[in-house]
Design brief:
Layout (H helix, E strand, L loop, with lengths): L24 H7 L2 H4 L4 H20 L5 E7 L3 E6 L8 E2 L4 E2 H7 L22 H7 L1 E10 L2 E8 L2 E2 L5 E5 L5 E8 L11 H14 L4 E6 L6 E5 L5 H8 L11 E7 L2 E9 L7 E6 L2 E2 L5 H20 L11 H4 L3 E9 L15 H21 L1 H34 L20 E6 H11 L5 E6 L11 H6 L1 H10 L22 H4 L4 E5 L4 H17 L1 H5 L3 E4 L4 E5 L2 E5 L2 H11 L5 E4 L8 H9 L6 E3 L5 H12 L3 H11 L9
Parallel strand pairs: 1-10, 14-16, 17-18, 17-19, 19-20
Antiparallel strand pairs: 1-2, 2-9, 3-4, 5-6, 5-9, 6-7, 6-8, 10-11, 12-13, 13-16, 14-15, 20-24, 21-22, 21-23
Length: 659
């Protein structure tokens, strides 16, 4: 009896061939959508549009399309039209189906795998439009080619009719229109963000010189429409990114060359009084957020070419050697590659892996930059002088920071006196609240769980780091206090970077942090919002690894306390307050508006904002670094006009303003 159930699990179920489920293409996508589009949240929802648009851009890269029109229609229906060749509709020999149906319903099928379809393509894996079809409640495709118009309807990836229909004579020459409605069974919320889409389409227009991309929002009575069309291509892109700033030299440096079947296009320009680097890399119009071999080659070439020129002209002392981070201080650059067979890491295409590309980009950029400096000695000298200043400041700051780190490691007494630390020593279990002033700090210190929650009150508004160099930042008392408390190794600009051969150390941010949750907890008024923005600017510019690693959060304290007799409810938005008030009955309801955390007693602050069981935290994420960079540049930069224009344009969107 004892051996009778040896082949069964502890739960008593057999594990045999009947447990193995084979999922077909469409079924597999619907079962595990995040494997194909990253998530079913906002990012994944919008990725559906980008997958279809990428197919249209592939037509443009092949030279057959010059206009793409994207419409957001009522009901969150999306239409993408391009005036390309139109998807082939003739019978596919192997599948025994029209080619268009194969493309729209079969994973790893498309014109990108054979020869003659596309020379270069962003939709490398061939799952793009078929995945969109699988994750849509319905999709319709209309194809115009050979003087005729064809269409087919799909429900959740399956063709409604067995064949593609010849509908009518085509009045326009050629093209493809894909219309789809995302599936509410897959996506918890279906609401497209116009601005979110706009930035990606604008980016595509910059990367494809001459391509016209039109975005229309037809969801409201007042329709919105914008056209993105840039004859300057990546040069226009860099000029756009640097708009409103003072340049070290003009115009931007433009390098373009095709080498060993790799098209390399690079544009770069240094900003005079800015200290962070903004480099954006693309392969076949796909943003490579994690870089890759092309970015390594670019960085190597910058360091090598400028150092070679500086030594040749005796601009450096014998012991001085400019590092890449010094030469890229204040740099804005766009790297745009087109490769026939790119090797990306994963379907999300965030990192290029082609080993041969590093040498190609290195060679092209090194040669191009060397030629530029020989022809423009004044600009070359300005670049070197800026790099030398950055080098000397960074060396001094690094030495000071190293002393601070060593002191912190040896002596815990160096922690800021106003820091109320927690007893837990495991950083993964610890969290620190950055609070505004002593009043809120007092409530937070009394209300916290001392075992794992630390409180750091900050005095007033910290330095606006958007306008400051690293040495000035490290000299600021409140920022020094913040850095010492969170972890002296968090400063991005002081880490040792790897050289072009991959040598050198690279710090692990997780080991540098004393707390794995850094929570910004400020008042719900204008001053609180300003302090929160200043802190976000600091972390984004100088401790970006804390954001990229998912360690930075924003607390969500309630805005209202709704009371009626002994009954109390907290409301976190005006809408929630109105709903709660209505549910409690309008008569006799008392509403308290919390403008400051100090207005709550310790128990209330714990229950609403600090208790992990009941609180809500917003994790700060870098979904689009370029968008974030532009907003910080406008709101926190030294230029007044762009900020004034932004406020004027967006003032009408403000629903509540505390005075």
């Amino acid at each position: 009896m004892a051996g009778k159930k040896e082949d069964e699990t502890q739960a008593g179920h057999k594990y045999d061939a009947s447990n193995i489920k084979i999922l077909g293409g469409i079924e597999a996508v619907r079962k595990r959508p995040s494997m194909y589009i990253g998530s079913t949240a906002k990012g994944g929802l919008h990725h559906l549009i980008y997958e279809v648009v990428d197919n249209s851009v592939d037509e443009a890269l092949a030279g057959y399309c010059d206009t793409v029109v994207i419409e957001i229609r009522k009901g969150e229906i999306i239409s993408v039209f391009d005036n390309g060749r139109g998807i082939p509709i003739d019978l596919h020999k192997e599948a025994k189906k029209p080619a268009a149906e194969v493309v729209l319903t079969t994973l790893h099928a498309g014109g990108k795998f054979g020869t003659g379809g596309y020379k270069v393509s962003g939709g490398l894996h061939g799952v793009g439009v078929s995945v969109v079809n699988a994750l849509s409640e319905w999709m319709e495709v209309e194809i115009k080619r050979d003087g005729k118009c064809y269409n087919q309807h799909f429900d959740r990836g399956n063709p409604k009719t067995p064949k593609i229909k010849e509908d009518k004579e085509a009045k326009t020459k050629t093209g493809t229109e894909v219309i789809f409605l995302p599936d509410s069974e897959i996506f918890p919320e279906i609401k497209f963000d116009y601005d979110y889409i706009k930035y990606r389409l604008k980016e595509l227009a910059f990367l494809n010189k001459g391509l016209k991309i039109i975005l229309k929002d037809l969801r409201t009575a007042k329709e919105k429409s914008e056209t993105f069309h840039y004859e300057g291509g990546v040069v226009s892109y860099v000029e756009h990114l640097n708009e409103g700033k003072e340049m070290l030299y003009k115009p931007p440096i433009y390098i373009v060359q095709e080498k060993d079947n790799v098209f390399v296009e690079v544009c770069l320009q240094h900003v005079k009084d800015y200290y962070d680097e903004n480099t954006y890399s693309f392969v076949n119009c796909i943003k490579t957020k994690e870089g890759g071999t092309h970015l390594v080659g670019f960085k190597s070439a910058i360091t090598k070419a400028i150092n070679t020129y500086a030594r040749k002209n005796n601009f450096l002392k014998e012991e001085e050697s400019l590092q890449g981070e010094d030469l890229r201080e204040g740099l804005t650059a766009v790297i745009n590659l087109r490769i026939s067979n790119p090797q990306f890491e994963g379907q999300t295409k965030t990192k290029l892996g082609n080993s041969e590309v590093k040498g190609i980009v290195d060679s092209v950029v090194n040669d191009g930059l060397s030629v530029f400096m020989d022809k423009n000695p004044a600009a070359a000298r300005a670049i070197i002088d800026k790099g030398l200043l950055a080098y000397r400041v960074r060396q001094a700051a690094r030495k000071a920071q190293e002393l601070e780190r060593k002191k912190s490691a040896l002596d815990t007494a160096t922690l800021p006196g106003k820091l109320a630390d927690c007893s837990e020593s495991n950083a993964e279990k610890c969290e620190i609240f950055l609070v505004e002033g002593d009043s809120a700090g007092g409530s937070a210190k009394q209300g916290r769980d001392r075992r794992f929650q630390a409180i750091l009150p900050l005095k007033g508004k910290i330095l606006n780091v958007e306008k400051a160099r690293i040495d000035k930042i490290l000299a600021n008392e409140e920022i020094r206090t913040l850095i010492t408390a969170v972890g002296p190794g968090i400063i991005s600009g002081l880490k040792e970077e790897k050289d072009e051969n991959g040598n050198g150390s690279e710090k692990d941010i997780a080991k540098e942090l004393r707390y794995h949750k850094i929570v910004i907890m400020t008042d719900a008024d204008v001053d609180g919002a300003h302090i929160r923005t200043l802190l976000l600017t600091f972390f984004y510019r100088y401790a970006r690894e804390t954001v990229e690693g998912g360690y930075l959060y924003i607390a969500q304290p309630p805005l209202y306390l709704v009371k009626k007799g002994k009954e109390e409810h907290y409301a976190y938005s005006e809408k929630e307050m109105e709903k709660t008030k209505k549910a409690m009955g309008e008569q006799g309801v008392n509403i308290q508006r919390y403008k400051g955390l100090g207005e709550m007693n310790p128990t209330q602050l714990w229950e609403t904002t600090m208790n992990p069981e009941t609180r809500t935290l917003l994790r700060v994420e870098l979904e689009d670094a370029e968008v974030a960079d532009e907003i910080f540049k406008i709101l926190m930069g030294s230029e007044v006009e762009p900020r004034k224009a932004f406020i004027t344009e967006n003032a009408k969107l403000v629903k509540r303003l505390d005075i």
